[in-house]
């Protein structure tokens, strides 16, 4: 009897320490080890067993990241930070491709299949691949549309990672329902109409023997219902809801591709939802359906689709390095933006002449910039030569327009002169009194362009030297996807922001340009288009990027 009591006490002692073992078991597993408890001759022993797979660092190896509803601007800062350190990105097809730009260029980016285009990976295949990559030492970002914890299999993947002892983090994202509440003008909660909201799947896993959805309870739910993934099963879930007592007249809103430039909104009743999503209507996922009294609110809350360029596709043709401002302003006004640079801006291949001129800056009175590119490349080389802004202390600075003036401000330099209109002729006219006084001018310019500024200053009596500070070259190949879209009439506007871009654009796309409207940044650029046989449909009144965007918005 005594022996039996002693044995029980020793077993209890093992149980008391077992919870401590559980706490550090995961940490040991990251080193490729695991712990177990064995009883030998009545004593509790800890056995450390080396596992076969490679040891892992204790640092996070896998990030389950939500990319948001579709608009790349709705991704979280934490998601961007995770993508920046990814070795591999495994992403769903609903993820906006622009989001992938936050990952390193050398990172491997793998789409996990798309309906009608490529085979969809199974969840088991995804789980296995994540584990393989993580155990080989890779940092993996599993990138999902919306929020990873809302109908996005985060539980499946995190359970596998926890079981394998692989460190992971889950990064929230804006789910489609939350975005719809803002972008469609249908608040999910309302102090008078809805004090609760429920997210409901319209597509339960076929592995379930019985549905977990209680339609009687959903019909009585005192608030807003949001159905995800319910296009193919719409007849079943909508009729079940009505049969359970939800009035067929209940307001409903169907939203496809929420937050995207081609967002589609259909307002109807619950009883009409199945007809609106029938096969004949050809409305493909991603779609959510909002059901409840909030769906009947007035449409004047729908600010998203009231933006001036909503539903329009704009093709931006500026050099990639300087397209961001135009892309962002078009997108902010609701446009779908495509980017096809037709020129490239690059440093000089031979710096000898520029370096020599940087050593003679004290011989000039004015330093004149006719583009922001000129500012950046001139100052980059100045700093590279070992000089700093003090080298410009004896010079006055002239800028052709507000963009160039801002580029100087970005380097803590103030322009002494900027013409009222932003073209070379106006700049030369503004400088003519200085030229008449025999002042000396250094013009920082591209390898190609008009000679009018130098000629007018010389004619006015000025001493003029020109120095090439960067190269502008034509792009010779078009992205096939953009070319196809243009041929199909899928582009509404094409931006033309300089004469050089006008010439390259016509050379690159030719008669395909007639399938879209051209918007020009200035009369000079419009004149170049006319010379090349193409008319502009709109022209900026103020010769700036904001002016160009405004011309498309009118």
What does this structure look like?
The chain is α/β, with parallel strands linked by helices and 554 residues long. It has 5 domains: 49 residues, no CATH class; 113 residues, 3-Layer(aba) Sandwich (Cobalt-precorrin-4 Transmethylase, domain 1), CATH 3.40.1010; 107 residues, 2-Layer Sandwich (Methyltransferase, Cobalt-precorrin-4 Transmethylase, Domain 2), CATH 3.30.950; 109 residues, Rossmann fold; 129 residues, 3-Layer(aba) Sandwich (Rossmann fold), CATH 3.40.50.10090. The protein is built from 18 helices and 22 strands. It has a 5-stranded parallel beta sheet with strand order 5-4-6-3-7, sandwiched between helices. β10 and β11 form a beta hairpin. The longest helix has 28 residues. The protein is elongated. About 9% of the residues have low confidence.
CATH structural architecture of the largest domain: 3-Layer(aba) Sandwich
Main β-sheet: number of strands, strand sense, barrel status? 5 strands, parallel
Number of domains: 5
Q: Write out the strand line-up for the largest beta sheet, numbering strands in chain order.
A: 5-4-6-3-7
Helix count, per DSSP?
18
* Structural class designation: alpha/beta
Distance from N terminus to C terminus (CA atoms, Å) equals 96 Å
Proportion in helices = 25-40%
Shape: elongated
CATH topology (fold) name of the largest domain: Rossmann fold
Which strand-content bin applies to the residues?
A: 15-25%
The top-level CATH class of the largest domain is: Alpha Beta
Residue windows where pLDDT falls under 50 for at least 5 positions: 4-33, 37-56
Q: How many strands appear in the DSSP assignment?
A: 22
Radius of gyration: 32 Å
Report mean pLDDT, rounded to a whole number: 89
């Amino acid at each position: 009897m005594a022996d039996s009591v002693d044995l029980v006490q020793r077993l209890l002692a093992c149980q008391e320490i077992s919870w401590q073992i559980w706490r550090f078991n995961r940490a040991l597993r990251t080193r490729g080890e695991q712990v177990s408890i064995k009883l030998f001759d009545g004593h509790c022993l800890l056995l450390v067993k080396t596992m076969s797979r490679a040891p892992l660092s204790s640092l996070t190896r896998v990030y389950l990241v939500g990319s948001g509803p579709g608009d790349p601007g709705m991704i979280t800062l934490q998601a961007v930070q995770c993508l920046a350190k990814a070795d591999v990105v495994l992403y769903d097809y609903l993820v906006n491709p622009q989001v992938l730009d936050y990952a390193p260029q050398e990172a491997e980016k793998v789409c996990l299949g798309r309906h009608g285009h490529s085979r969809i990976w199974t969840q088991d295949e995804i789980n296995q691949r994540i584990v393989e990559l993580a155990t080989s030492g890779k940092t993996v970002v599993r990138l999902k549309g919306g929020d990873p914890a809302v109908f996005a299999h985060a539980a499946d993947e995190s359970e596998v990672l926890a079981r394998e002892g692989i460190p992971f983090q889950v990064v929230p994202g804006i789910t489609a329902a939350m975005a719809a509440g803002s972008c469609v003008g249908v608040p999910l909660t309302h102090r008078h109409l809805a004090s609760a909201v429920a997210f409901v799947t319209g597509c339960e896993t076929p592995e379930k023997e019985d549905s977990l959805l209680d339609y009687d309870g959903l019909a009585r739910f005192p608030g807003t219902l949001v159905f995800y993934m319910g296009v193919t099963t719409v007849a079943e879930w909508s009729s079940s809801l009505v049969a359970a007592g939800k009035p067929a007249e209940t307001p409903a809103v169907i939203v496809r591709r929420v937050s995207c430039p081609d967002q589609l909104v259909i307002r109807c009743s619950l009883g009409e939802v199945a007809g609106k999503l029938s096969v004949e209507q050809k409305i493909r996922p991603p779609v959510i359906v909002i059901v409840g009294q909030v769906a009947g609110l007035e449409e004047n809350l729908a600010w998203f689709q009231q933006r001036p360029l909503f539903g329009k596709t704009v093709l931006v043709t500026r050099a990639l390095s300087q397209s961001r401002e135009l892309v962002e302003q078009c997108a902010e006004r609701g446009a779908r933006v495509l980017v096809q640079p037709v020129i490239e801006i690059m440093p000089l291949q031979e710096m000898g002449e520029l370096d020599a001129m940087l050593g003679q800056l004290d011989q000039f009175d004015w330093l004149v910039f006719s583009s922001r590119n000129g500012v950046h490349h001139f100052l980059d080389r100045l700093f590279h030569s070992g000089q700093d802004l003090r080298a410009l202390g004896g010079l006055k600075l002239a800028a052709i327009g507000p963009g160039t003036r801002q580029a100087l401000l970005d380097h803590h330099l103030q322009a002494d002169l900027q013409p009222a209109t932003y073209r070379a002729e106006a700049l030369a006219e503004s400088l003519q009194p200085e030229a008449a006084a025999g002042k000396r001018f250094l013009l920082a310019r591209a390898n190609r362009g008009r000679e009018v500024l130098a000629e007018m200053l010389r004619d006015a009596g000025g001493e003029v030297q020109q120095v090439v500070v960067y190269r502008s070259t034509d792009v010779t190949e078009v992205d096939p996807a953009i070319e196809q879209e243009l041929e199909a009439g899928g582009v509404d506007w094409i931006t033309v922001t300089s004469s050089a871009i006008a010439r390259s654009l016509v050379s690159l796309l030719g008669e395909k340009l007639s399938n879209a409207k051209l918007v020009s940044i200035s009369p000079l650029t419009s004149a170049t288009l006319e010379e090349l046989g193409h008319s502009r449909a709109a022209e900026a009144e103020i010769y700036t990027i904001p002016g160009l965007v405004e011309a498309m918005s009118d």
